[in-house]
Amino acid sequence: MKWRHKKFTFMVIRDANSSVMRFQLSVLALAIGSALTVALFVFGITAFALYRGNTGQIGHLQRQLAAASGEYEQRLGAKDEHIGELESDLADLSTQAKTINERMKDINSLETQLKDMVGIGSGGTSKDKAVKPAAGKEDEFAMDGTGGEEIPVTDDEMERLTDETRGQFDFLGEQLEIMQPRLELTKTAVAKQQKLLAVTPTIWPTDSRRITSTFGIRRDPFTHRATNHAGLDIGADYGDPIYAAADGTVIEAGRSSSHGNNVLISHGNGIRTHYSHMSKILAKVGDKVRKGDIVGEVGSTGRSTGPHLHYEVIVGGEHVDPEPYLKASRRSQ
């Protein structure tokens, strides 16, 4: 191991006129210095390589981050646009819900009018009769001429509108569930009422509305004594048409000393109508007549002082006042 102690002498001559610089290094120090130099050189090369690699990777990552950021901003812009469209659609749905509410009110009103037309009582609750908006105040939008300042909608306002619209459609669903069976019942009741109305003497038997003698006790025009008048006398012109007051079957058509030419119609349910003093009979026994059909013409046959129709309504075998039955004309039945 003596070589460790050997020394190398190094001389440094700067120029011809300068003194010579000498220094000695042992073999060990020279080896260590050389090793350190090589290590530093390797470290430098490695660090430079790592730096170049990291620089490329960082650039690549930066490019990826920029692309991702641009794509994110693009998606965010698209989502904002989509959210705006959804908000507009929600506003439209809210308007539609209010419009449907109004139309359902109209349907309820029409149902009530239909029941009134055929004489059916509504018989429902106030909830059934009208549809009210589920929440919020109704807005009326004109078809044109709109304007005003455009104010951005806040999140709270959109959330409130969403809740209101959801409530409106939930309420509409409940109303439809109620309305469908109710309308079926109304349809059945109207059909039944129409059949009943068809056989109920509800129309005037003449075009004339001039009542010359009412139902009940009156002074007889021939004897001038108090007598019971079993029907109504309706003054009319000779030959005016006489109409069947309801659907039915002609059970009598002939002449008698008191009623003159007369027709008796059975309408079922124990109801009959009697038409007297005709100038001409236009129906015969067994005929099926409809409400408004002509069964004869006005005259003055039998016990009569002039052209008129003596009209009677008989219910369960008893004469009743016909006047409450006179609801409509033949044309408006």
Give an overview of the whole structure.
InterPro entries: Cell_wall_metabolism_enzyme (IPR050570), Dup_hybrid_motif (IPR011055), M23ase_b-sheet_dom (IPR016047). This is Peptidoglycan DD-metalloendopeptidase family protein. Residues 228-322 form the M23ase beta-sheet core domain. The chain has helices at 27-118, 126-129, 155-198; strands at residues 7-12, 21-26, 210-213, 216-219, 226-229, 232-235, 241-243, 248-256, 260-268, 271-281, 288-289, 294-298, 308-315, 318-320. The chain is of the alpha+beta class and 333 residues long. It has a domain at 210-325: Glucose Permease (Domain IIA) (Distorted Sandwich), CATH 2.70.70. A hairpin with a 6-residue loop joins strand 4 (216-219) and strand 5. Helix 1 runs parallel beside helix 3. The model is unreliable at 124-143 (pLDDT under 50). Helices cover 42% and strands 23% of the residues. It contains 3 helices and 14 strands. Strands 3, 6, 7, 8, 9, 10, 11, 12, 13 and 14 form a 10-stranded antiparallel sheet that branches. Strands 1-2 form a two-stranded antiparallel sheet. A two-stranded antiparallel sheet has the order 4-5.
